[in-house]
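This entry is listed as follows:

___
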Amino acid sequence: MAPDVRFDTRAPEPTLALARFLDGFAGRTLLVADSAGRREVMIELLAAHGIRPQPVAGWPEFRGGSMRLALAVARMSAPSSCPLSPSPC
Protein backbone atom coordinates (compact mmCIF):
# COMPACT_ATOMS: atom_id res chain seq x y z
CA MET A 1 0.00 0.00 0.00
CA ALA A 2 1.28 3.44 -0.92
CA PRO A 3 1.69 6.14 1.73
CA ASP A 4 -0.69 9.12 1.63
CA VAL A 5 1.51 11.97 0.41
CA ARG A 6 -1.14 14.11 -1.27
CA PHE A 7 -0.57 17.83 -1.51
CA ASP A 8 -2.81 20.03 0.64
CA THR A 9 -2.78 23.23 -1.44
CA ARG A 10 -4.73 25.13 1.23
CA ALA A 11 -2.18 24.39 3.96
CA PRO A 12 0.79 26.66 4.73
CA GLU A 13 3.07 23.69 3.91
CA PRO A 14 1.25 21.88 1.07
CA THR A 15 4.05 19.33 0.58
CA LEU A 16 4.51 18.46 4.26
CA ALA A 17 3.23 14.87 3.96
CA LEU A 18 5.60 14.15 1.08
CA ALA A 19 8.54 15.85 2.82
CA ARG A 20 7.97 13.77 5.96
CA PHE A 21 7.75 10.59 3.92
CA LEU A 22 10.97 11.37 2.05
CA ASP A 23 12.78 12.24 5.28
CA GLY A 24 11.85 8.88 6.79
CA PHE A 25 12.28 6.69 3.70
CA ALA A 26 15.75 5.57 2.63
CA GLY A 27 14.63 4.19 -0.73
CA ARG A 28 14.02 5.78 -4.10
CA THR A 29 10.72 7.45 -4.99
CA LEU A 30 9.02 7.98 -8.35
CA LEU A 31 6.24 10.56 -8.35
CA VAL A 32 3.73 10.37 -11.20
CA ALA A 33 1.74 13.20 -12.78
CA ASP A 34 -1.19 12.37 -15.07
CA SER A 35 -0.26 15.00 -17.68
CA ALA A 36 2.68 17.15 -18.77
CA GLY A 37 0.87 20.24 -17.52
CA ARG A 38 0.29 18.72 -14.10
CA ARG A 39 3.97 17.68 -14.01
CA GLU A 40 5.00 21.32 -14.51
CA VAL A 41 2.65 22.47 -11.74
CA MET A 42 4.08 19.79 -9.43
CA ILE A 43 7.66 20.80 -10.26
CA GLU A 44 6.90 24.43 -9.37
CA LEU A 45 5.05 23.55 -6.16
CA LEU A 46 7.72 21.11 -5.03
CA ALA A 47 10.59 23.50 -5.85
CA ALA A 48 8.91 26.26 -3.86
CA HIS A 49 9.20 23.95 -0.83
CA GLY A 50 12.73 22.72 -1.44
CA ILE A 51 11.84 19.40 -3.09
CA ARG A 52 13.41 18.88 -6.52
CA PRO A 53 12.59 15.62 -8.29
CA GLN A 54 14.50 14.73 -11.44
CA PRO A 55 12.19 14.52 -14.47
CA VAL A 56 12.27 11.08 -16.15
CA ALA A 57 10.50 9.61 -19.17
CA GLY A 58 8.93 6.81 -17.14
CA TRP A 59 9.44 3.68 -15.07
CA PRO A 60 12.24 2.18 -17.22
CA GLU A 61 14.38 5.33 -16.96
CA PHE A 62 13.76 5.57 -13.21
CA ARG A 63 14.49 1.89 -12.67
CA GLY A 64 17.72 2.10 -14.67
CA GLY A 65 18.89 5.28 -12.94
CA SER A 66 20.15 6.10 -9.50
CA MET A 67 18.15 9.24 -8.67
CA ARG A 68 16.53 9.20 -5.23
CA LEU A 69 13.50 11.25 -6.29
CA ALA A 70 12.05 11.47 -9.80
CA LEU A 71 8.88 12.65 -11.52
CA ALA A 72 7.27 11.11 -14.61
CA VAL A 73 4.10 11.53 -16.62
CA ALA A 74 1.90 8.42 -16.71
CA ARG A 75 -1.64 7.26 -16.16
CA MET A 76 -2.31 5.48 -12.87
CA SER A 77 -5.63 4.25 -11.57
CA ALA A 78 -4.52 4.32 -7.93
CA PRO A 79 -1.43 5.15 -5.86
CA SER A 80 0.93 2.24 -5.42
CA SER A 81 4.32 1.34 -4.08
CA CYS A 82 6.71 -1.18 -5.52
CA PRO A 83 10.13 -2.21 -4.22
CA LEU A 84 12.85 -2.24 -6.84
CA SER A 85 13.75 -5.85 -7.36
CA PRO A 86 14.86 -8.13 -10.21
CA SER A 87 11.21 -8.76 -11.14
CA PRO A 88 9.13 -5.85 -12.49
CA CYS A 89 6.12 -4.62 -10.57
Observations:
- DSSP finds three helices and three strands in the chain.
- Strands lie at 29-33, 54-55, 69-73.
